[in-house]
Amino acid sequence: MNSYERAVLPVAMALSLYHRTGDPVFQHLLRRILPMKAYIKLGALALLGLASACKSDFLAEKPYSSYTPVTLNDSLGTDASLVGLYNHVSTIFSYADQQGWPSVWQVGTDVANATANQQGIEIPYYNYALLTPTDGAASFTWNRNYILVNLTNIIINSMDSPTMTSLSTGGKARASAEARFFRAYAYNNLATCFGGVPILTQALTGPKTDFVRATLDEVNKLIVDDLTYAVANLPDIESVRANAGGAKLYGRANKFMAMQLLGEAYLRMGKPELAEPQLQGIISSGRFSLIKRRYGVGTSQPGDFYHDMFIYGNQRRSQGNTEAIWVLEQENPSVVVGGITNNPQQRRVWGPAYYNIVGMSLSDSTGGRGIGRLRLSNWVLYELYGSGDVRNSQYNIRRRFIYNDPSKTATFGKVVPYTGTDTLFSIAPHTTKWYQYNPTDAFGFAMIKDFMLMRLGETYLLLAEAQFKQGKLADAANSINVLRQRAFSSYPNTGQVSSSDITMDFILDERVRELIGEENRRMTLMRTKTLVDRATRLNSNSAVNPIRGLTTTHLLMPIPLGEIQLNKDAVLAQNPGY
């Protein structure tokens, strides 16, 4: 089975998740369900579905000639399909067929450059003249999000159907809210990357080759409607369901996830006055607090409280991370079958290839095996951080290497010198957020860390942006200062900012200080329409693979040519400039 097929088997993840949490859904699925395949591609055959069920004899398969999953006929089947949405979203972050995928969203911006070890898919995202409608990253982005749209539509349509009588009114509302959150998530991604796109609110039941682009306003309305419904019907994070052992499933959708996404979407729409109350609501809920002291795994080792938040085993709310709003939880597939959908490349992309240095060996303290596909920009490394900022501590931005191979007695324990091109590739300074060493996979092809997709630190940054855009400079400074008080031990003597310091550029700078390695930087700069200015002004001097050909065209990605060509019965218009 290839990665494409794995990506559209949501029930498989449900089997794995509920098996390890002890939920009765697992037994229900074993009795009734074989893996479901769902495939959507605009302009192509659109959706090919296959669902199978087994009775007493595992081999006695009953094929169904239907595009709607047979699982959606009771609460257990519905929940299994909902869990499948998380599985599908994980395929966006764990994609490994093109190992430079994480680089696409960082290089060619203000924060990073591709090294000599670029893989290929990221090349048009710093050499923009090569970004054409045949681009693989744009196609994969379109594909993953529209698959998610169709999977959510299947659930939403089922909850709206009068034949769905096995769930209570409240149960249907909660299931629909969870699916609507993910539909809004997909459409917000699409709107940010492509602008106005085709709207689908009904699950496809056959080939469709007449898609047309909706206006951006129409797409935005769908996003707002879905998220407003989700906020009203999703549970509080402390009211999420528990597994059979009584442990709360904090990885499942909660109302605050919908509020954060709605706040960000409103900012993209130019409606900061609507974004602010959503973000304030998260903060004032009292459910979350910034990490300000050491906790969890690794407290016996050197480090700091900010670094603790990114240690494997500390990322989840159940593991002490009080800042986490949405953590996409992953598991080691050597321990849990199906625990992760592919082989995430984040550590290999962000971590330097220090194993190339004679006298350096792979270790937990050096983060496992990176291969240095990107390097932080000189602006980030040498200009961004103020003195005393914990986010730039030796535990968070590593700048110093020690020879650690005891077999090389001449160098063991000495500082590795920065010489030649090593500083661009092998021992480049780097964020430690993706450190993760698995002794059973010393080569380090896969990474098994969770993906922290929303946390309170970003909530304050989005709030500051909403306040700034309304001219509330003092309020924006106060929001930023909440983070800076956490970051600077000598605050307010150092670190404090005033209303006169607050500009959009300053807020975007602060996002890098707080979220480097976490945020999708390209999408942030596309959303704020600052990509061209900031990438050109702050990151035009890379010695290797410099930014070339960047224009306002690249504030959107190209509509994939294959989608346009296969959409034979209507015009699927291309974005200007492509």
UniProtKB/TrEMBL annotation:
The keyword tRNA-binding does not apply. Residues 57-238 form the SusD-like N-terminal domain. It comes from the Bacteria. It is found in: Cell outer membrane. InterPro entries: SusD-like_N (IPR033985), SusD_RagB_dom (IPR012944), TPR-like_helical_dom_sf (IPR011990). Keywords: Cell outer membrane, Membrane, Signal. Transmembrane segments: none annotated. Pfam families: SusD-like_3 (PF14322), SusD_RagB (PF07980). Residues 447-578 form the RagB/SusD domain. Belongs to the SusD family. This is RagB/SusD family nutrient uptake outer membrane protein.
